[in-house]
């Protein structure tokens, strides 16, 4: 085990020991620790940083996962299309719920897609995955590019179509969140999409998607 990984494990334990019973470590404290430890890594080449990150992920600890995903994001300037293979393996092996999914996909994985939009074809296949968090990821991973208005060549509506009948509420909330983000960039198109699909979209997704609209638009959509 690398020494910086050992140090991360020990310092997370120290943070955990200070937390009152029944409470959990604050995410902000984990991120501060992550930044401090990252500065201590001597070799910041992406290959080395991702090896260290995977060592953290292999501990199957929420807090260490936050650090791992943060380190992976910090080397974003070194991403290549081949980084997809590592990140996808992490998604399948180490992500085990919506929290991990959202952290990973709204930072490192989402940034990878924004840089290499041709990966959208691969990521859109996630909508067929047996694991709900991978299906959720198919929508959430689009959000960083959408919010930066840098999603040319991607089709968020096709992802929403593929997930529209998904029975899992966290997948419904995931693509609803994606559409809500999109509504801030192209409100007319999202409004039209919601109106056209009001009868088949689960209300959970529908309500998430329209959260950013004004009161009048919300009332009209809910009346459909």
What do these coordinates show?
The chain has helices spanning 3-18, 27-40, 46-57, 62-74, 83-93, 98-105, 108-115, 120-124, 132-140, 143-147, 156-163, 169-183, 187-196, 203-209, 215-222. By secondary structure, it is mainly alpha-helical. Helix 1 packs antiparallel against helix 2, helix 9 runs parallel beside helix 12 and helix 12 (169-183) packs antiparallel against helix 13. The protein starts with a helix and ends with a helix.
What is the structure about, briefly put?
The chain is 67% helix and 0% strand. The chain is mostly helical and 224 residues long.
Walk me through the topology:
Elements: H1 3-18, H2 27-40, H3 46-57, H4 62-74, H5 83-93, H6 98-105, H7 108-115, H8 120-124, H9 132-140, H10 143-147, H11 156-163, H12 169-183, H13 187-196, H14 203-209, H15 215-222
Helix pairs in contact: 1-2, 1-3, 2-4, 3-4, 6-9, 9-12, 11-12, 12-13, 12-14
Number of strands: 0
Structural class by sheet pairing and helices:
mainly alpha
Evaluate the radius of gyration. Answer: 19 Å
| SSE ordering | HHHHHHHHHHHHHHH
Percent helix among the residues?
55-70%
Distance between the termini: 58 Å
């Amino acid at each position: 085990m690398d020494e910086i990984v050992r140090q991360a494990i020990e310092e997370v334990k120290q943070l955990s020991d200070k937390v009152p019973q029944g409470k959990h470590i604050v995410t902000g404290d984990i991120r501060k620790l992550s930044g401090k430890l990252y500065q201590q890594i001597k070799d910041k080449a992406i290959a080395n940083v991702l090896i260290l990150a995977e060592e953290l992920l292999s501990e199957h600890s929420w807090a260490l996962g936050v650090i791992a995903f943060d380190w992976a994001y910090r080397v974003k300037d070194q991403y290549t299309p081949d980084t997809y293979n590592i990140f996808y393996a992490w998604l399948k092996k180490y992500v085990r719920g919506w929290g991990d999914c959202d952290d990973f996909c709204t930072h490192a994985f989402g940034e990878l897609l924004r840089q290499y939009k041709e990966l959208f074809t691969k990521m859109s296949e996630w909508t067929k995955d047996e694991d709900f968090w991978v299906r959720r990821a198919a929508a959430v991973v689009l959000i960083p590019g959408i919010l930066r208005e840098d999603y040319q060549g991607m089709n968020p509506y096709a992802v929403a179509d593929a997930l529209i009948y998904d029975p899992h509420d966290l997948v419904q909330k995931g693509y609803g969140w994606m559409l809500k983000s999109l509504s801030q960039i192209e409100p007319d198109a999202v409004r039209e999409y919601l109106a056209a699909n009001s009868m088949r979209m689960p209300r959970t997704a529908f309500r998430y998607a329209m959260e950013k609209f004004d009161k009048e638009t919300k009332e009209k959509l809910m009346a459909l």
